[in-house]
Design goal:
The complex is a heterodimer. Chain A has two domains: about 160 residues, Aldehyde Oxidoreductase, domain 4, CATH 3.30.365.10; about 140 residues, Aldehyde Oxidoreductase, domain 4 (2-Layer Sandwich). By secondary structure, chain A is of the alpha+beta class. Chain B is of the alpha+beta class. In chain B, about 35% of the residues lie in helices and about 15% in strands. The chains are: A alpha+beta, B alpha+beta.
């Protein structure tokens, strides 16, 4: 018999290394002779999109087109350390470092512009759309490209902005459980409808939704990609992927029996991006890399419980595990 | 040793191959066509998918001697110089690439789908790429990209704004 059930799984997740461990990101922003800005940062791009969103952040602070940002990462000779691409920390931590580095460069650009424009001070000077100009008299202006050329002539290049960001976390007191082990936290909720076949033990996901708190979406398309990916991974974890560990040895070490969801196994996920800017985040953004997969298994297991009244406590819920649990339930 | 003639991406090659050599070895090690990736090496993950005589095969499961007189298309054969193939353009446009390891194989599976029908249903697309495992994307954006690629092909170009 086929039985339907609904389940939700809600999580909150502290990003970053946490628990008082020094979590430091550094970045450098360099004005090049052609007016472009090179961002040097030791943040590894592994497909999550850090290069894209961090270039966006730099372009936003410098107020220049995205194509004028030269993003240089993954070569430790040419960049300061920004920690690991782990703990869902690059958007928040390294994003903050890049923002600080670009703000530092921006300040230096304006200071140099006031000298070139022969003004009394830098008060009222601003940088927008690649131009530095006086707000009260916009005809007093110089483009970033022209300024770079002047600085090159005066042998004042490269102009370098630096940024370092250390996340604020406090180790938890083991006795009292008090402390502030993580900051910030990311929240999400998954909802799924499953259909359980009580004859075969097969589970079909009929519908799935995810609402993900992101602080501020720097690149909504990429966030959706992360949500889809986290859902697929969480789904595999819930009902397919079983290493079959026995006495320390893996039984299922090939894709023939270690089953990763295929395009036919993953249903369409309805996605909601929830924006609630984090005041300490770069433009309000937070990390979502790991959080997007956490709520899937609880939601699926709750839906199975709703469908057949059996509380499963081990993943993955393979057909044989589910059938065994149903049999035990009938016996009791 | 066995001498074989094969045509890869429109170019003819004459090669002397060992009997135990697979097509993926010929492509990557002999010809330096590194676009095709070797994932599992046992025909399960689809990372090494290429087109042989217009059909998708896993290059790790085809012996080199079996490719004699065959026509092969790899990811390197898709773009026309700087001009990307509509499927490649669509993958970029939609954001269907994350780590990129499955992408070359995925794009060739997409080509096999769209060569048959430029207006496939999402179910047909999912069926067509079900032999290509992806660990990052959850497939949704890939399905979207193949839909868009079909539209671009029907409009006869790779202009995503049109």
């Amino acid at each position: 018999m086929k039985k339907k059930g609904v389940g939700i799984g809600s999580t909150f997740y502290g990003t970053g290394y946490g628990n008082g461990f020094p979590d430091v990101s550094r970045a450098k922003a360099v004005l090049k002779e052609d007016g472009k800005v090179a961002v040097h940062v030791g943040a590894t791009e592994v497909g999550q999109g850090s290069k894209t969103i961090m270039s966006q952040m730099a372009a936003e602070v410098m107020s220049i087109p995205l194509n004028d940002i030269i993003f240089i990462c993954e070569d430790t000779k040419n960049m300061p350390d920004s920690g690991t691409a782990a703990a869902s920390r690059q958007t928040y931590n390294t994003g903050n470092a890049i923002k600080l580095a670009c703000e530092d460069l921006r300040k230096k650009v304006i200071e140099n512009a006031f000298k070139e424009l022969k003004l009394n001070s830098s008060v009222g000077l601003t940088l927008k759309n690649g131009e530095i100009y006086l707000k009260t008299l916009p005809s007093k202006n110089i483009s970033l490209k022209e300024l770079a050329l002047c600085l090159l002539k005066n042998k004042e290049l490269p102009l370098i902005g630096e940024g370092s960001f250390t996340a604020q976390t406090i180790e938890m007191d083991e006795e009292t459980g008090q402390g502030a082990p993580y900051w910030p936290y990311t929240f999400n909720v998954y909802g799924v409808i499953v259909e359980v076949d009580t004859e075969t033990g097969l589970i079909d996901i009929i519908k799935a939704v995810c609402a993900q708190d992101v602080g501020k979406a720097i690149n909504p398309e990429m966030i959706e990609g992360q949500m889809d990916g986290g859902f697929a991974m969480g789904l595999g974890y819930s009902i397919y992927e079983d290493l079959g560990l026995k006495e320390g040895k893996m039984k299922n070490k090939n894709f023939t029996n270690y089953l990763i969801p295929t395009a036919l196994d993953v249903p369409e996920l309805e996605k909601f991006i929830i924006e609630d800017p984090e005041s300490t985040g770069p433009f309000g953004a937070k990390g979502i890399g790991e959080p997007v997969m956490l709520g899937v298994a609880p939601a699926v297991l709750n839906a199975i419980y709703d469908a057949v009244g059996v509380r499963i406590t081990q993943v993955p819920v393979t057909p044989d595990r589910l059938l065994r649990a149903l049999k035990e339930e009938r016996r009791e | 040793m066995k001498d074989i003639n094969l045509k890869i991406n429109g170019k003819s090659y004459r090669l002397s191959t060992n009997e135990d050599m697979r097509l993926i070895d010929v492509l990557r090690d002999e010809l330096g066509l590194l676009g095709s990736k070797e994932g599992c090496g046992e025909g399960e993950c689809g990372a090494c998918t290429i087109l042989m005589e217009g059909r998708t095969v896993n290059a790790c499961m085809v012996m080199a001697f079996q490719t004699d007189e065959k026509e092969i298309i790899t990811i390197e054969g898709l773009s026309n110089g700087e001009q990307l193939h509509p499927i490649q353009q669509a993958f970029i446009e939609i954001g269907a690439v994350q780590c990129g390891f499955c992408t070359p194989g995925m794009i060739l599976s997409a080509k096999a789908i769209l060569d048959k029908d430029t207006n496939p249903t999402r179910e047909m697309i999912r069926q067509g790429i079900s032999g290509n495992l992806c660990r990052c994307t959850g497939y949704a954006k890939i399905v979207d990209a193949i839909e868009l690629a079909g539209k671009l092909l029907r409009n006869g170009g790779n202009n995503c704004e049109a």
